[in-house]
Amino acid sequence: MKNQTSDMIFNSRISWLIFFFVVKAINLDAQNLTPKIIQSDNFVKRVANTNPRNLIDVGQQIPVMPQAPGAKINEVYLDEAWKLSSIKIYDSENILEGYKVRYDLRSNVIEFNLKDQTKILDARKVKTLIWLDSLSNISHYFVNGKDFTFNDVPLTSLIELISEGQVSLYKEYSFWVKKADYMAALDVGSHDEKLYKRNKLYYGVGTTLKEVPKKKKEFIKIFGEKESMIDTFMKTNGLSVSKEMEVIQVFDYYNSLK
Description:
Blueprint (H helix, E strand, L loop, with lengths): L1 H30 L3 H15 L8 H4 L3 E2 L16 E7 L5 E10 L4 E5 L4 E5 L3 E8 L4 E7 L4 E2 L2 E2 L3 E6 L4 E11 L15 E12 L2 E4 L4 H4 L7 H11 L6 H13 L2
Parallel strand pairs: 8-13
Antiparallel strand pairs: 1-5, 2-3, 2-6, 3-4, 4-5, 6-7, 7-10, 8-9, 10-11, 11-12, 12-13
């Protein structure tokens, strides 16, 4: 009888310990859920469970304009594929969801793929944009660069929020133009200008951004009192500042720390 009582007490303690650690794990997961993650996950779930919207009324819901004839020259799309999207406009509580869009970096406009035409929305009117990559089923979360400053100057395009937390990581997409360089006398070079895309990573607390350093010694200083912990994490996992995906991994790790 005494042994049975001891076993019951022991099992009871084990059960409470299991319960404690399960609850603790759930709470830790909840603490790591940032607004970006919550909004993106909810969007993906809604898209998976609903049919695409009838897009005829898009012009009545948002300040879009028809694309000008002949304007489809030398666009620089962030991605040429159309993406299912969720868009929040400044000064509006409505969320526009289910429209297929793509982002033209050169004109800084969002293109809407409607049934019989393409319409455009000035990206400066967009507060947030979430779009879903149909191939990877990964969502991407963008905010408006005009709400952030770099060297005391507001950015002018949408920027992607890559890692959100104590020190957030952002990516700015831009392009540069190589002018026509044809030389008739030598019959060499190109008659046309060429457009090339490029990316830049920023980090920031609040709305002030700084460019992510290219050297590890300067990079780990971003993380303040956790500098040595980040240094150890990078060495243990063989991570480099020169590789974007590994920089993202470092920020995700840091932002998961408490």
